[in-house]
C-alpha cells in the first residue's frame, strides 16, 4: 500500500457542528512526530514537487478543496481532498503535487518524522533514478 484514503472518525451533531479525530497507530499506521499546516494560498496554487525517502504522512483538508497528484514511478493518481473526514495516507517514495482548487483551503499534515531536508527528493530526474535503485513497496 503506497497511498490510501481513510475515513477519519467523526462525531456529528445537528446544531453544534462536527468533531473529527484520529489517534496514533489506532487510526493511522505510524506514530506522529510532527504536525504542520498550510493556509492562505490562492486558488490554483501548486505546491509540492517532491518525494520523501522515509517519511510517512497523513494529509487532510479541514476547510476547502485541494487536489493531490501522486506519482509512484509507474502510475499517476489523483485524490480530491474535499471533505474534512477524508485522510490520505502516503507512504515514502511517492512524488506529490498539491493544487489549491479553492482559495484559502487548509492542508493539514500529520507526519511520522521530525523535519529533515535530507529526506526530500526535490528533483524529478533524481527521483526516477532513486526509484531504479530502491525497492518501494507496492
Ligand atoms: C509534503 C507536503 C504535503 C520546515 O522548516 N519544517 C517543516 O516541518 C516543513 C514541512 C517545511 N519546512 C520548510 C522547508 C521549506 O523551506 O518550509 C519551507 C516550505 O516547505 P516545502 O516547500 O517543502 O512545502 P510544500 O508545501 O511543497 O511541501 C510540504 C512538506 O514540506 C512536504 O513534506 O509532503 O507539504
How would you sum up this structure, described in words?
The protein is mostly beta strands. Helices cover 7% and strands 46% of the residues. It has one helix and twelve strands; from the N terminus they run ββββββββββββα. Strands 1-9-6-11-4 form a five-stranded antiparallel sheet, with no helix packed on it. Strand 7 (66-71) and strand 8 form a beta hairpin. It starts with a strand and ends in a 5-residue tail after the last helix. The model has no long low-confidence stretch (mean pLDDT 95). Bound molecules: dTDP-4-keto-6-deoxyglucose. Residues 34, 36, 38, 47-48, 57, 59, 96, 98, 109, 115 line the site of dTDP-4-keto-6-deoxyglucose.
CA radius of gyration: 15 Å
Say how many strands there are: 12
Distance between the termini: 6 Å
Report the principal-axis shape: globular
Largest sheet: 5 strands, antiparallel
* Number of contiguous helices: 1
How would you write the strand order of the largest sheet? 1-9-6-11-4
Element pattern in H and E: EEEEEEEEEEEEH
Indicate the proportion of strand residues: over 45%
Instruction: Identify every distinct bound molecule in the structure, by name, code or SMILES.
Output: dTDP-4-keto-6-deoxyglucose
Structural class: mainly beta
Overall residue-averaged pLDDT value: 95
Which segments are poorly predicted (pLDDT under 50) over 5 or more consecutive residues? none
Helix percent band: under 10%
Chain oligomer state? single chain
Amino acid at each position: 500500500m503506497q497511498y490510501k484514503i481513510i475515513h477519519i472518525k467523526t462525531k456529528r451533531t445537528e446544531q453544534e457542528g462536527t468533531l473529527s479525530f484520529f489517534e496514533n497507530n489506532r487510526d493511522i499506521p505510524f506514530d506522529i512526530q510532527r504536525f504542520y499546516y498550510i493556509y492562505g494560498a490562492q486558488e490554483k496554487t501548486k505546491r509540492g514537487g517532491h518525494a520523501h525517502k522515509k517519511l510517512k504522512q497523513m494529509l487532510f483538508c479541514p476547510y476547502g478543496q485541494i487536489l493531490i497528484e501522486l506519482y509512484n514511478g509507474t502510475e499517476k493518481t489523483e485524490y480530491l481532498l474535499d471533505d474534512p473526514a477524508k485522510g490520505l495516507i502516503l507512504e515514502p517514495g511517492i512524488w506529490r503535487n498539491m493544487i489549491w482548487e479553492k482559495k484559502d483551503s487548509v492542508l493539514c499534515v500529520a507526519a511520522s518524522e521530525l523535519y529533515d531536508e535530507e529526506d526530500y527528493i526535490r528533483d524529478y530526474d533524481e527521483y526516477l533514478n532513486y526509484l531504479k535503485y530502491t525497492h518501494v513497496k507496492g
